[in-house]
Amino acid sequence: MAKKRAAKFEVEIEDINLMPIMNLITLLIPFLLLSAQFIQIGVILVDWQSRARARTQKKEDENKRTLGLTINITSKGYDITTKEKGSACPSKTANGQPCIPVSMSGGNKIYNRVALRKFLYEKFWKPNKSNNSLEPDKLDRNIYSDWGKVTIRPESTVPYEVVIQTLDASRELPPEAKGDVSGNLACVFKKPQGQQEWQLTGNCMFPFAQLAAH
Amino acid sequence: MSNRMDSEEKARQERIEAKKAERREASKKFRKDPLKITSLMDALTIILIFLLKSYGSDPMEVPQKKNELMLPKSSSVSNMSECVDIQISRSAIVVKGKPVVKVLDGKTLESGATESSNPMLITKLKVQLDDWRKKAAEEKKKDVQKYEGEAFIAADGQIPFKIIKQVIFTAGMARYTRFTFAVVKTRGG
Asked: Distance (Å, rounded) from C-alpha B85 to C-alpha A41?
């Protein structure tokens, strides 16, 4: 009995053979590298004007002022108008010029989106920001019933890329606005899981874009 | 002369034997002390996890191709959600991976693509979108007549707005009320 207890077994533990796993991983990596998307795709929300008008008819019929901000993208440049006052740059319009003309570079037309963003900020957003807000609980106090909305009206020949740049320029505040708002200048639409409607977060200029035919 | 040759041959044989012995030693040493691959395994596992994460992060993929479908860049940081995707490349309009209408020279639609009475309405596209909207309404158990769809449009940056306008109008006729444009993010979020 004593002999049995004294008997010792030496068990030699061998290292795990990692080679098969290594082979598998090495095969998986090239496959995943080929199918992986390194570019991040984002979205821009837009409405088609006729539909948007029908949906917001009730709100805009209230006894409030309407800004009716419209950006016309023509072959000559950006022409900005409002329902309230007409052309945003009457002197230029009188001479048949757009508010922000295109420039030519290497035979291509360059639309100045930086100037457009600054123009919208200085002419419309900054003078009216104290009396208007995009926060849901402050909407009733807004002077303009359509605050935050913009209609983009591109000509048929305008490239889609320019439309996207215009949407960017009207949605986001320029760097000059840093002192006017708290937090960063990003304007984000988020769709919570399982919900139908998008929610707006961040600091935005005119985020509710509608596209219309010229 | 032959003695000298024998000694040279002997020396050569000895050198070969010594090399063989050296190799045997190295082999024994390798067997005793195998290559350490644990750190390599760690690195590969991290790469694998990163790739798997990027593989399944977006609900929809937009395959980009030069001179065919290159999305415009945007400062937007909003992420996409699941909905019907319409791709407008320089050669075709594709709904959920199925080509519907041809685009000629990246500028105009093929002849007969639109209705003669309404040049804004793309007939084949409307049929496809109607089908997808019905399917979506049935999946979500909602009234097919009242259900309003959401379309995700991924178009090449150089496509003229006229085609985008026709697609949006047609989608609107098929009761798609909200549109999201796909863009390449220029900043994270």
From this structure: 13
| Closest B-chain CA to A192 | B81
Check CB contact of B152 with chain A, cutoff 8 Å.
yes
For strand B149-155 and strand B176-185, is the pairing parallel, antiparallel, or unpaired? parallel
Question: Which residues of chain B carry a pLDDT beneath 50?
Answer: 189
One-letter amino acid at B59 equals P
Q: What are phi and psi of A89, to 5 degrees?
A: -140, 75
Which token pair is B92? 């075709």
Distance from CA of B159 to the nearest CA of A (A): 6
Q: Which residue has the tokens 């309003």?
A: B148
Q: Which of A42, A163, A191 sits opposite B185 (nearest CB)?
A: A42
Q: d(Cα B102, Cα B108) in Å, to the nearest integer?
A: 9
- The shares of helix, strand and coil residues in chain A, as percent rounded to the nearest 5, are 40, 25, 40
Please tell me what DSSP assigns to residue A40.
P
| CB-count exposure of residue A95 (10 Å: 0-12, 13-18, 19+) | exposed
Q: Which of A135, A212, A184 is nearest to B75 (CA)?
A: A184
Mean pLDDT across chain A, nearest whole number? 82
> Per the CB < 8 Å rule, is B55 touching A38?
no
Contact at 8 Å (CB) between A173 and A205? Answer: yes
Does this complex have an ipTM over 0.85? Answer: no
Helix axes B123-139, B161-173, angle to 10 degrees: 50
Contact by Cβ (8 Å): B161, B41: no
Quote the distance between the C-alpha of residue A97 and its chain's center. 28
